[in-house]
# Entry
Amino acid sequence: MAEAGIWIFGEQARGRILPVTWELLTRGRALADKRGSRLTAVVFGAQLDRADLQEAIERGADRVLACEAPLLEHFLPEPYAACLMHLIREESPEILLGAASSTGRTLMPYVAIKADTGLTADCTELDIETQTGLLLQTRPAIGGNIMATIKTPQHRPQMATVRPHSTPPAPRQPGRVGEIVVRRAPPEALTSRVRRRGFRPAADENALAEASRIVCVGRGIKKGEHVALGRRLARALDAALGGTRDVVDRGWLEYPAQIGLSGKTVTPRLYIGLGVSGSIQHLAGMQTAEAIVAINTDPDAMIFKVADFGIVGDLFEVVPALIKHLEER
Amino acid sequence: MKILIPIKQVPETNAVRMDEATGTMIREGVDAIINPLDLYALELGLRLRERAGGEVVALTMGPPRAIEALREAVAMGADHAVLLSDKAFAGSDTWATSLALAAAIRKLAPYDLIICGERATDGDTGQVGPGIAAWLDLPLISYVAGVSELTPRMIQARRLVEEGYEDLEMDLPGLITVVKEAAAPRLPTLRGKQRARRLNIPVWGPDDLGLTATQRGLVGSPTRVVKIFRPKISRQAHLVKAPDAAAAARAAQELAAWLASRHLLPAAAASRAGQEVGHG
Ligand SMILES: Cc1cc2nc3c(=O)[nH]c(=O)nc-3n(C[C@H](O)[C@H](O)[C@H](O)COP(=O)(O)OP(=O)(O)OC[C@H]3O[C@@H](n4cnc5c(N)ncnc54)[C@H](O)[C@@H]3O)c2cc1C
Ligand SMILES: Nc1ncnc2c1ncn2[C@@H]1O[C@H](COP(=O)(O)O)[C@@H](O)[C@H]1O
# Structure
């Protein structure tokens, strides 16, 4: 019987559920419908917004399983893993999905070992074999040059992290009903040898992970002070500002802005590259964007191979004109 | 202070082939380097040793030639190195890899700190570091961008997350995984290279680590690659040539309209760009 069900691990900040959770519900709902099983959203926090828990039901969860304790306010690997393990032992879910975020990519591999099961990182496609219930986990490998489909034949739960923005958030269906269970976290789980002492927000403009639009500057911008032009375009588009490694290495942008193999992997709705050549290492971090625009003087630049809209031209001519079009009434 | 650094040898280029039957990488005939993120781990480890005293041990699991990566680590300044190599390790997924490394680390106890790269550029999972911590029941800080303090009992680190940096403190022994910001790697020195050539590097197999047949390699791996395929590149760029300022202005207008038609603009800009198209 497939009743053990499909779980997603939702994320929160300051008690409010984060949008990436709605994307996980999209994934989880599709699998649960195909398998004919129940979808549970697991969330941990100090004090979770009750309306948000209801929203999780409206967005496709059959049940919300929430654990609360002051120590769960921010993500810490040990108490989060211990609480999750507690729930896994109680109910033995078939499938457990998390986000491929800084939280998910830390918690899930820790839990996979404790649960003695496999884990597939950073999936961009998920499917299920109806007969066997085997999860088909597809992810880019070797810098996105190939895709690999991975199964976990014997071990349970089958675990995967899912790349943020690789699917739209689940739509809200007002009036959809489900069960909301809020409990205190098991006391034995509430210890941590890691303590949080403080937090420093990154420059807002570099918040690439959540951005639905990203402007990325490459070395074609030529000088640190010209990055301001990219910034102006980003403002006009309400976009985050990222850069290639060359730009970050030159100190024109901070490391949190770096997109690519040794920086961040992003999947925005729109990526615009300004003077970006499209090296394989850079493409690895952005080629799953929904729409890719490139502005580059070199018609043979690799980036045009993955672009939907390309302008072969001087960014210093094109971008000011584009900003004008976007800002002018 | 004893600092252990698991490093991985990865293919230099992205021109790697896959074995369609087993779904594993074919490494023969491809230049190999130390995973770039592991160089940051090494550098941080060396700097912490310079500050706190003690020793740095590099370890890797891989084919016999992975010993080159260890010699390079020693040339950079690592004190010792251990190679985990045996046919039985082939095809390990992150479960089996982290188990083997954890077993080796147990053998090297007592230790204070383990430093991993955030992820390897070939497998690109970032799962091995947290996995080792779980096997050894150690506390963990991932995505470390800098270490501000290290005492025999605790480490203070800055962790890079989506919204900024967390300041965290962790009891030792513990494990951290590092991102590029952690430290810019040094080059090997001549003296280091000489030492590396002479240094005796032990090679451990599954029996040395007490691993049973079901705990290692492909057999011991819970995950199976069942299919490999090339991503369908469905993108066909609409290319606009803009050789001069006038053409650039036209191209910009066309792009604005294209963005609007695809609903890619924020609400306010969309209506403006849409209007322009209407008039254009
Ligand atoms: C292990 C490893 C990891 C790496 N990780 C990353 C990573 O995470 N992220 C990353 O980005 N890179 C990474 N790189 C580096 C990568 O190989 C490239 O060097 C880098 O991406 C190139 O950046 P770029 O496109 O800004 O610069 P370039 O390749 O120099 O390209 C500049 C482009 O600007 C164009 N241009 C010049 N002037 C103009 C103008 N006026 N108008 C329009 N276009 C113009 C040029 O035609 C050119 O195509 C990595 C490399 C290695 C080896
Ligand atoms: N075979 C290996 N030998 C030694 N260390 C490894 C190995 N595989 C992974 N690691 C370590 O784990 C980190 C993450 O690797 P991965 O999970 O493969 O992305 C690397 O940066 C290394 O520090």
User: Anything to note?
Assistant: The domain at 2-189 of chain A is CATH 3.40.50.620 (Rossmann fold). The radius of gyration of chain A is 21 Å. The CA atoms of residues 46 and 70 of chain A lie 5 Å apart.
